UniProtKB/TrEMBL annotation:
Species this protein is from: Nitrospirillum viridazoti CBAmc
Active site: 79
Pfam families, alphabetized: ELFV_dehydrog, ELFV_dehydrog_N
Keyword Oxidoreductase part of the UniProt annotation: yes
UniProt name for this protein: Amino acid dehydrogenase
GO biological process annotation, one example: amino acid metabolic process
InterPro entries: Aminoacid_DH-like_N_sf (IPR046346), Glu/Leu/Phe/Val/Trp_DH (IPR006095), Glu/Leu/Phe/Val/Trp_DH_C (IPR006096), Glu/Leu/Phe/Val/Trp_DH_dimer (IPR006097), Glu/Leu/Phe/Val_DH_AS (IPR033524), Glu/Phe/Leu/Val/Trp_DH_bac/arc (IPR016211), NAD(P)-bd_dom_sf (IPR036291)
Length: 355
């Protein structure tokens, strides 16, 4: 059943774990460890069926292989899911049981936070295993990844503006930012510093008001942020924002933002290309966060080394944009292809899989 599942992509390992006392029901998927130990978040969600949880962990772990290899990290791709409601089912016993499950893999998978999981939860896992990352205290703690994510997104916007609009400067470039949380607010600061003209939106009016007050941005209703007459649309809220409904309303020539899973389905990437919209693949442009978390793996943390890797996002995106033009293919397909090629090259070089 698992081997025939549409999202099964020759994953190296899928581990199912159950601890009746704490209520733990968990799945860890290690997709590929060619580049190093698999690293990716742990998600807690009240999945309607176990099949939904399996599908999610298979899809997300492959996504982490692509994201990590495109960020140039010595990490493979993995992910884990805990089946349960994060509002009611959390306990120290559950996270410790999960920590033991991670420990049983001997470092082949490194867990970090994801939807439904906080840094505090990861700290509890860390009482049973050292194979966790994204902590906010300890010798190599990397802290909040959002400023690094936002810096990468800012550089990615510059790469996309250069490619599509032919300018190196963001002065006067109109950018619509959707979602003004951790990533969106840091991004607005950088864009405003460069003289970009900001149109912003958040479902919480006070978040928007702060950005309006600080940067002289114009706030609009969340239902129309994607349809603004701007040069760049920067989704920094939830996934699926580029879909059959939003696409005909899009006026921007560039879509480049920090949100995960911006395309409702992969085929939207082709439609964006047909419309002449340059799309910066989400998992490449938002790699700054995982680059920062990865700085913690190995026990040392160097801000300079991390910034250098985040800065490489600009060149990686420029390569994707050029290749997409040369091959007349959507940027999301080109990014996936490049990720697969990098993994294949790693394998050909005999980079050892984690035993
Ligand atoms: P966040 O929760 O701090 O911010 C999200 C903001 O979006 C919130 O202020 C929320 O009110 C707003 N929002 C939600 N729905 C909206 C809508 N329909 N219209 C307008 N605003 C809306 O989250 P974050 O950490 O800033 O992450 C933002 C996105 O970036 C997410 O998709 C996340 O998965 C992705 N991401 C974040 C990081 C990171 O380092 N934090 C790294 C990689 C990817």
């Amino acid at each position: 059943m698992l081997f025939d599942a549409p999202d099964f992509d020759n994953h190296e390992l899928v581990l199912f774990g159950r601890d009746p006392e704490s209520g733990l029901k968990a799945i860890i998927a290690v997709h590929d460890t060619t580049m190093g130990p698999a690293c990716g978040g742990c998600r807690m969600w009240p999945y309607a069926t176990e099949a939904d949880a399996v599908k999610d962990v298979l899809r997300l772990s492959r996504g982490m292989s692509y994201k990590n290899v495109m960020a140039g990290l010595p990490l493979g791709g993995g992910k884990s899911v805990l089946i349960g409601d994060p509002k009611t089912a959390k306990s120290d016993a559950l996270f410790r049981a999960f920590g033991r499950m991670v420990e049983s893999l001997g470092g082949r998978y490194i867990a970090a936070e994801d939807v439904g999981i906080t840094v505090a939860d990861v700290q509890v896992m860390g009482r049973e295993t050292k194979h966790v990352a994204g902590l906010n205290h300890g010798a190599a703690a990397s802290g909040d990844p959002s400023p690094f994510t936002a810096y990468g997104v800012y550089l990615g916007i510059k790469a996309a503006v250069k490619h599509r609009l032919g300018t190196d400067s963001l002065k006067g470039v109109r950018v619509a930012v959707q979602g003004l949380g951790n990533v969106g607010s840091h991004l607005c600061q950088r864009l405003a510093d460069d003289g970009a003209v900001l149109v912003v939106s958040d479902i919480f009016a006070d978040q928007a008001k702060q950005v309006v007050d600080r940067h002289g941005a114009t706030a609009v209703d969340p239902s129309v942020i994607h349809a603004q007459d701007v040069d760049v649309f920067a989704p920094c809220a939830l996934g699926g924002v580029l879909n059959e409904q939003s696409l005909p309303q899009l006026k921007a020539k560039v879509v480049a933002g920090g949100a995960n899973n911006q395309l409702a389905v992969d085929a939207i990437g082709r439609q964006l290309r047909t419309l002449g919209v340059l799309y910066a693949p989400d998992y490449v442009i938002n790699g700054g966060g995982i680059i920062n978390v990865a700085g913690e793996v190995g026990g040392t943390y160097s801000k300079e080394a991390i910034l250098a890797k985040v800065e490489a996002i600009h060149g990686t995106l420029a390569d994707i944009f050029r290749r997409a033009d040369a091959e007349d293919r959507p940027t999301n397909e080109v990014a996936d292809q490049m990720a697969r090629e990098r993994l294949a090259a790693g394998r050909a070089k005999g980079m050892a899989k984690v035993a």
